[in-house]
Amino acid sequence: MSAVQEHPSLPEDKPLVLDGKRYESRLLVGTGKYRDLEETRLAIEASGAEIVTVAVRRTNLGQNPDEPNLLDVLPPERYTILPNTAGCYTAEDAVRTCRLARELLDGHNLVKLEVLGDEKTLYPNVTETLAAAETLVKDGFKVMVYTTDDPLIAQRLEEMGCIAVMPLGAPIGSGLGIRNPYNIRMILENAKVPVLVDAGVGTASDATIAMELGCDGVLMNTAIAQAGDPIRMARAMKLAIESGREAWLAGRMPRKLYASASSPLEGTFF
User: Fold this and answer.
1) How distant, in Å, are the alpha carbons of 105, 165, 247, 253 from that of 260?
2) How far is CA 107 from CA 110, 140, 144, in A?
3) Residue 270: helix, strand or coil by DSSP?
């Protein structure tokens, strides 16, 4: 009997599809905190990511013609540019930022919504996030939404029409890893849209844990950009995402209280 036959409850290997487009890489990366645009380019190439998120309020996408343009090193024909609303603390600001991004990117509707509560924790402001999501969905945007790890809020955002839910693993830039895997598991059990961990990853093992939980992907920035060697870390994250996904699809062995011999005595000749 094959291993697959022995584990009939193995998860289905569904592709990652966002706004009708299929992606091979399940690693999404940010573009901030690098030393320069060349390091940004090299690290993102090493990561294998196909989706690159950009803080519209902090990044030149052509609105400042006399400054270096990020799109010169990360061309939209190669990468899916995911504008985000980093730095927004109200629904109004977030909506305005998404509309600006749509103008700059010739009608681009795929956005990452984040509305923050305060500058110290960068924790999501759920009330403002819900308000912004409702407006953006009605305005035709395809919203991927950064939120808390509250399963009820995640479900509500999905019901409102968000195309992906992105619970934090830990506060933005903290590098603390996946602090509440149980809540993320509950979100995954109920979600009918992709669930991606966003924020909190510090190293490759954190990304692997997120994928072993069954997440559809992981978005990160600081863990790569602030590593001692960002390009090497980008490669490590690529491999971590892939290995975590493979482990989840394979189905781990059951946890046991006591040891179990890998070579049992039954059937031996002495």
Assistant:
1) 58, 39, 21, 12
2) 9, 10, 17
3) coil
Q: What is the pLDDT of residue 8?
A: 60
Query: pLDDT grade, residue 269 (50/70/90)?
Result: low
Phi then psi for 22, rounded to 5 degrees? -90, 140
Going through the chain in order, the beta strands assigned E by DSSP cover 16-18, 21-23, 27-30, 51-55, 80-84, 110-113, 142-147, 164-167, 196-198, 217-220
Tokens of 266: 């039954």
CA distance 39 to 34: 6
**CA 98 – CA 107 distance, rounded (Å):** 11
Contact between residue 199 and residue 222 where contact means Cβ atoms under 8 Å apart: no
Q: Give me the half-sphere count of Cα atoms (radius 13 Å) on the Cβ side of residue 164.
A: 27
- Would residue 120 show up in a list of annotated catalytic residues for this protein? no
Report the alpha-carbon distance of residue 9 to residue 201 in Å, rounded.
Answer: 29
CA trace torsion 228, 229, 231, 234 (10° rounding)? -50
Give the pTM. 0.90
The secondary structure of 45-67 as a DSSP string is HHHT-SEEEEETTTS-SSSSTTS
Set 112, 138, 192, 256: catalytic member: 112
